[in-house]
Amino acid sequence: xxxxxxxxxALEAAGAALARWAGLSLASGLKxxxxxAVLAAAGELxxxxxxxxxxxxxxxxxxxxxLAEHALVGETSFWRHAEGLLALAARLxxxxxxxxxxxxxxxxxxxxxxxxxxxxxxxxxxxxDRILATDLSVRALERARAGRYRARALRRLPPGLAGRWLExxxxxxxxxxxxxxxxxxxxxxxxxxxxxxxxxxxxxxxxLIYFEPAVAAQALTRLAGAxxxxxxxxxxxxxxxxxxxxxxxxIEEGGATLLRRR
Length: 262
Hints:
- The protein is an alpha/beta fold.
- It has two domains: 2-71, no CATH class; 82-260, Rossmann fold, CATH 3.40.50.
- It is built from ten helices and ten strands.
- The protein has helices spanning 8-22, 31-45, 49-57, 61-71, 82-92, 110-121, 138-146, 159-165, 177-180, 213-225; strands spanning 100-104, 130-135, 148-149, 166-169, 172-175, 183-187, 199-204, 227-235, 249-253, 256-260.
- The strands form two sheets. The chain has a seven-stranded mixed β-sheet. A three-stranded antiparallel β-sheet has the order 3-5-4.
- A hairpin with a 2-residue loop joins strand 9 and strand 10 (256-260).
- Helix 1 packs across helix 3 and helix 5 crosses helix 6 (110-121).
- The protein starts with 7 loop residues before the first helix and ends with a strand.
């Protein structure tokens, strides 16, 4: 089996193909992650790792999708960088019309559910508000729709909130259906055109840091373009410098930075 492992050149070719399709760049600093993903994807498809890498490099869509499932970085949790969610929710809660929000790169759903919770905390409880949560991973979306989470995903959530909005069960805590009601999940590639908008807010945090700078810039242009005039973009703190050329107004609020479309 060792002889069938892809060499550096084959691995880089597979990584380049993955980056072209999904924006995810693992060919340099995260080469070890890419190699492990190739091994896992090859095992799932019953292929030698070298054949899997060659198939991805050659444009095999199914092989690329399976590799992406194993390569995507899905580390997240409830209430991550909560100051940003709370600042955004406080601003949105004042709007008289129904809200339309896009949570891009939502992984297993902790982010959009946290946003729904932040809106509740801001006094916003309208049945016509909508949060569209998207991700590239089919498996992550299945887990998000199920709405069941282990203790690690809840580690940042204050116990009082967890006790109010999650129902403890034998297989972990489950999101209260009332909190989950405004959230809808859909598969989407950030390199494709945005879902139909416009949106009052777009949330995309800790996703673009895994993209090559040029690809991240293209994705950011699409995210900002999906906002309605006056709409707000919320990025992860380390991603804010990537948005410097978008022409968005920076708003400091509640210890967070929001980017407003003029």
